[in-house]
Write a structure and sequence with these properties.
single chain, alpha/beta, TIM Barrel, 44% helix, globular
Amino acid sequence: MKEILRNKNDTLCMIGTWAWGSGPNGGKIVFGNHYNEQQLRDTFECAYNAGFTVWDTAEVYGMGSSERLLGSLIADKEVSISTKHFPYRHYRKGENRDAVNASLERLGREKIDIYWLHSPRNIEQNMKELAILQKEGLIERIGLSNGNLAQIRRAQITLEEFGTHLFAVQNHYSLLTIERENKILRYCQKNGIFFYGYMILEQGALSGHYDKDHRFPSMSLRAASFKKSKFKKIQPLIEYIRELAVKYETDSSRIPVAWAVYNGVIPILGITKPTHAENLLDGLEIELKSYEIKQLEKLALKSGVRCKGIWE
């Protein structure tokens, strides 16, 4: 990862800004968060000063508002930017060029370090466009998000035909998706494709801060998708996560992150408070034992809860 990541911290994670957007797909609607712009600016500075310089966003996070805010923060900073285009259902020629140019304007950048097709629609046409944009120097590396194994292979083949390669996959990866995603993870590891995992904490359900008696903010999409019945089923897993947090003297939200790192995943960690940024290194440096990894996965599988976003 040294080719694109500037220091030790960045070899371990990418900072996510899904919750930074406003309006549709923004923090208040999806997560039920309540914060102001100054809080996010302080959060950015805290993380940046700690050495985290790789940031992930997307055109649909708050319908551009996340990119605009991030762009205002990185103007004088040395950072790597990852952003994404959510393609139309039916392919439109030139849509990726339009999307890249719009993101560059919002971010105030001349080049995007990692550009992702946010959904595996019309893979051949869209990957062809991205390969052209890469050759023109508008994007550095190409990734695919939310793809299954067949779609990842198709993206690989298409890009190779145009003289480039699939740099990375960014998929939903947590203890509650391992049956689906571990096959993809192993494939990526065998084929030199980096695997970035988002929603490792399942939007907080695996953070240890919520349970059957303490649930998500009621007026949020995550509360609607993760009901009390699911929390009851994963209660033994939550309790074990808390037990490990006590053992390692850390916040319970860091345990699933340590689990992901153990498996070779590069986690995308969303933060909205300076304290979140201050605690990032803690979870990245925990080294869980193999028997603890197995117990986490055993409890997750035993729960019977399998998570999948409506966009997947």
